[in-house]
Design a protein that fits this description.
Low-confidence stretches: none
Shape: globular
Distance between the termini: 33 Å
Mean pLDDT: 95
Structural class: alpha+beta
Number of domains: 4
Largest sheet: 6 strands, antiparallel
Strand order of the largest sheet: 1-8-9-19-18-10
CATH architecture of the largest domain: Sandwich
CATH topology of the largest domain: Substrate Binding Domain Of DNAk, Chain A, domain 1
CATH class of the largest domain: Mainly Beta
Number of helices: 10
Length: about 425
C-alpha cells in the first residue's frame, strides 16, 4: 500500500466575516440563520430556549452536558420547559453549583448560536440548529480566496475516499496545536464550507430562476421514459428540465402516480433550481464531486464527503504562535473507517448450518475463515451435531446476513469483528476462544 496521494483542489471559499460554518447542505432547510429558529419539520407545539445563569453557570452547564455551549438549553418544547428547568435546578443544587435555569424572553437565532459557540469554544464550536449539529470556526482572513483541498486515502481498503478535507489559511506552515470538536452531522453524504454571514443567503426549496427539474432513473427508466414521453436528462436519467415551478408539482405528481401504477423500478428526484441544485449539478459532473456557489458575494464550496452519513470531527490547526493554519474536516479518521467496516460486515453473509438456522439448535461453534467473495464475511456457524457426511453437502447450509445472525443471536455481536482464523465455542450464553 502506497502513501496518500497529493491533495486535490475541490474549490475556493471567501470568509468576509472572518468566520466559517461547516454543515450538510442537504440539511440547510433547517438552518434558519437570523430568523425564527423554530424547525420547519415540527408541528407539535412551540419551542423555547433556556439560559443558564449565575456565578457557576458555565461549570454547571458543562457538568450537565446537554449542549456544546454550557450557557444554554436550546429548542425545548414549551410543554416540557418547566420540567426541564426544574431538573437542571435540582442537578445544580445536588452538585452545589450556584446556577439556575431561566426561560429566555426571546429565541436565540442560529447565526447567534454560532457566534456564541465559537466564543465559548475559544475559536471553534458545535452549533445546535433544530437538533442537528454544524461547526463554526473563527480567525479566517476577511479578504482573499482560501483553497479547499481533499487528501485521498491510501490505495487499498478505502481507495477513492477522502482521508481529510482542509480549508488552507497559511500554506506551508506547520500545525503545532489542534483544537477538535465532534462535530458536524451529515445525513445526505455532503458537506459545505461557507462564510457564517453569507450562509443566510443559501436557499433550499426556493427556485432562484422560477424553474426546476424532475428526473428519474433505474432499471425501468428507459421503458418509463418511452411510456411517458420523457426526454433524456443526463447520464442514465430521464425527465423534465427547466420547467416552470408552477407546472413542476403537477408533472411530479403525475409521474409518481404512473410509476406506482406500473410498478416501474425507478428512483425520482425533485430539483428546484435553488442553491442546493446549483451545487449538486456541479457535483454530479465533476470528477472531484465538488462545486461552488456564490452567496452574497462570498464563494462557498460544497462536496461529496465520500463516506456517507455520520458525525465528523472538525478541528482548527494552529501554528506555534497561535495563528490559524487550517480548518480540517477529518472525514476519514479511524472512527469513520471502523463504522464503514461495520456497515460492510453487517451486510455480508455467513454460512450457517440448517441445524442451527432451521432446526434452531444452538450455534455452538463459530469460525472465521478468509473470505472467498466480496460479500462473504468468512463466518461459518454450526451446532456441533453435523456429521462428516452432512458437512459435505452444501444443501445443508444457508447463507445468512450477519445482521440477521446478530438479531437472532445477540452474543455473536461481541466477537463478530474477530480476525480471520478465530474459533469460538458457546459457553453460558457467550462465545469463548477455542
Amino acid at each position: 500500500m502506497r502513501g496518500m496521494s497529493e491533495p486535490m483542489l475541490l474549490g475556493e471559499i471567501n470568509t468576509p466575516s472572518g468566520a466559517l460554518v461547516v454543515l450538510d447542505p442537504g440539511l440547510s432547510r433547517f438552518w434558519r440563520h437570523d430568523g425564527d429558529p423554530r424547525s420547519p419539520r415540527r408541528t407539535d407545539g412551540e419551542e423555547i430556549d433556556i439560559g443558564i445563569v449565575g456565578p457557576d453557570a458555565v461549570a454547571a452547564g458543562r457538568a450537565y452536558d446537554h449542549e456544546f455551549d454550557p450557557r444554554y438549553l436550546f429548542d425545548i418544547p414549551v410543554d416540557l420547559a418547566e420540567q426541564i428547568r426544574e431538573q437542571f435546578n435540582a442537578f445544580a443544587a445536588e452538585h452545589r453549583f450556584n446556577a439556575r435555569a431561566e426561560r429566555l424572553s426571546e429565541r436565540v437565532s442560529h447565526v447567534e448560536r454560532a457566534r456564541l459557540a465559537v466564543e465559548i469554544g475559544g475559536g471553534i464550536g458545535v452549533v445546535t440548529y433544530n437538533r442537528l449539529w454544524a461547526v463554526a470556526c473563527r480567525g479566517l482572513p476577511l479578504t482573499g480566496a482560501l483553497p479547499v483541498l481533499a487528501t485521498p486515502m491510501p490505495d487499498g481498503e478505502f481507495t477513492g475516499r477522502w482521508r481529510c478535507i482542509d480549508v488552507v489559511v497559511m500554506p506551508g506552515t506547520e500545525v503545532v496545536t489542534t483544537e477538535p470538536v465532534q462535530g458536524v452531522m451529515v445525513e445526505h453524504g455532503q458537506l459545505i464550507c461557507a462564510d457564517l454571514d453569507a450562509l443566510g443567503e443559501f436557499r433550499m426549496g426556493e427556485s432562484l430562476d422560477g424553474l426546476g427539474d424532475f428526473v428519474f432513473w433505474g432499471a425501468d427508466a428507459a421503458s418509463a421514459a418511452e411510456a411517458m414521453q420523457a426526454a433524456p436528462a443526463g447520464d442514465r436519467e430521464f425527465g423534465w428540465v427547466n420547467v416552470a415551478m408552477a407546472e413542476l408539482d403537477a408533472v411530479a405528481e403525475r409521474t409518481r402516480g404512473l410509476i406506482a401504477e406500473h410498478r416501474w423500478r425507478v428512483a425520482v428526484d425533485y430539483r428546484p433550481h435553488d442553491n442546493l441544485e446549483r451545487l449538486n449539478a456541479q457535483v454530479r459532473v465533476n470528477e472531484t464531486r465538488a462545486g461552488s456557489v456564490l452567496l452574497g458575494g462570498a464563494q462557498a464550496c460544497g462536496f461529496d464527503n465520500r463516506w456517507g452519513d455520520g458525525i465528523f470531527t472538525v478541528s482548527r490547526g494552529l501554528s506555534r504562535t497561535g495563528e490559524l493554519v487550517r480548518i480540517r474536516l477529518d472525514v476519514g479518521d479511524e472512527q469513520t473507517q471502523r463504522r464503514m467496516r461495520w456497515v460492510w460486515l453487517m451486510a455480508c453473509r455467513a454460512i450457517v448450518s440448517r441445524l442451527v438456522w432451521d432446526d434452531q439448535q444452538p450455534p455452538r461453534f463459530i469460525e472465521r475463515q478468509p473470505a472467498t467473495r466480496p460479500e462473504d464475511s468468512g463466518w461459518r456457524i454450526s451446532s456441533g451435531g453435523e456429521s462428516d457426511q452432512y458437512m459435505e453437502d452444501s444443501a445443508n447450509f444457508r447463507l445468512i446476513q450477519v445482521r440477521q445472525l446478530i438479531d437472532r443471536y445477540p452474543m455473536f455481536k461481541a466477537v463478530v469483528e474477530a480476525e480471520d482464523g478465530s474459533l469460538f465455542h458457546l459457553e453460558d450464553d457467550r462465545y469463548v476462544p477455542d
